[in-house]
Every structure is written in structure tokens, then in C-alpha cells.
Amino acid sequence: MRVAGVVRPVRAQELALVADLYLAARRAAGPAMPPGVHSDAEVRAWVGSWDLTDDDVLGFFDATDRLRGFARLAGAHLEALYVDPARQGSGIGGTLLDEAKLLRPGGFDLWVFVANSPAQDFYRRRGLVEVERTDGAGNEERAPDLRMEWRSERPSA
Length: 157
Fold this sequence. Notes:
Elements: E1 5-9, H1 15-28, H2 40-48, E2 56-62, E3 67-74, E4 77-83, H3 92-103, E5 108-113, H4 117-125, E6 129-134, E7 145-150
Antiparallel strand pairs: 1-2, 2-3, 3-4, 5-7, 6-7
């Protein structure tokens, strides 16, 4: 199932939709995603506080202008990439990742939980490589994670 839509910057008034999608996607991930450590209200406040002048927050909106996925880039770090659970496997995640690559042609990194093998596989298929693995002591969930990088192909001199 391919979903028709458009990628565009998220507007401040749409951050509540982003928070709802974030919460739904994390819950739907089941054991691949450790339980959140913040209440839904805390997550909504956090997402609502994102500075859209500093970060690039891209939304994938379907033909009815409904948010179906989003990606958040902060500097050279992909902070988040989540897709509506009902639309996973439809190409939205790949479309958002391709847009992230265009916005950060020098490359970027991201963190993914070790238990989230579907996400790792998704990123590996799209050219990201593992560069670091931790026991999770540095994240709020205290769950083992790994850092992956994407670096654009550069012709050798």
C-alpha cells in the first residue's frame, strides 16, 4: 500500500498532532520500544515546546492533509522519525528519511534501541551504519541502544 501525500514543514499549531502520532507509534511498537518514562501530558508539553526556528520538523501529510508521519532534525542529529502505525510499510518512513538526507547532505546520526530491530533494519537498508553501541545508561529509558550514521557518498579525489 503506497500512500499519496506531501512532505512539508510542520507548523506550530500542528505540534499537538505530532505528539499524538509520536505516542501512538511508540505504543504500537510493542516490545521493540521500551516503555516511555513520561506521561502523555509531559510528552505533549515537550513536543509543543519544540523550536521550529532551530529544528527541522517535517510532516508527511496524506491527500486529506492528515499527518501520517514526521521527522525531527536538530543540527546533524535525527531526533525522531515516526510513522502512523496504520501506515507503516507504505513508504512514508523512507520518504521522510530521503528528505532528511536532502536537508543534511553532509550526513547525520541517530539513536535507536537495540530491541528495535525493525527500525535498525529500516535504517540499514537505506545506507545508515552502526557506529556505537551502549548499555543504555545514557538514555532515560535505561535501555541498550546504538548510534547509526548516514554520510553522503563522496567521490574519492
